[in-house]
Amino acid sequence: TSIGRSYYALFNVVRGALSAEGVIFRQASDDHHALVSYLTQAKHRAIGHVGHALKDLRVERNRADYDMTNAIGVGTSEFLYEKAKAAIAQFDSIPPVELKEIVRRIQAIP
Fold first, then answer.
1. CA angle, corner 15, sides to 13 and 21, nearest 5?
2. Are 84 and 7 in contact (CB under 8 A)?
3. What pLDDT digit, counting tens, does each position of 66-86 carry?
4. Of 50, 59, 32, nearest in space to 87 by CA
5. What long-range pairs does 104-107 form, CB within 8 A, spacing at least 24?
6. I need a labelling partner for 74 at 20 to 30 A (CA). Which of 61, 65, 81, 92 fits?
7. pTM of the predicted model, to two decimals?
8. Whole-angstrom distance, CA of residue 76 vs CA of residue 90
9. How far, in Å, CA of 68 to CA of 8, rounded?
10. Are 27 and 95 in contact (CB under 8 A)?
């Protein structure tokens, strides 16, 4: 679905960037939950917003992909596309020095 594309665009951008900075992911299905958890626990306002957007998009992706009684309208698809686009822009605007601090915080999460 288009909602799935929006979700995975955000997921792959953020996971790829964090992986490149040294955050380890297991390449398993629980990476989706782990990424949201990392972002919302990193104690950084922008990255927290990205984490909440990712969480919201995942809920909507699951609804769109698995609830066959749920009809998704164009407006909803466009709204979620814009949400993913804004979250990617917010993530991309984080200065490299702040991203390194975010990675340090993520790596310290038990």
1. 105
2. yes
3. 988 888 889 999 999 999 999
4. 50
5. 105/41, 105/42, 105/43, 105/44, 106/18, 106/23, 106/38, 106/41, 106/42, 107/22, 107/23
6. 92
7. 0.92
8. 21
9. 20
10. no
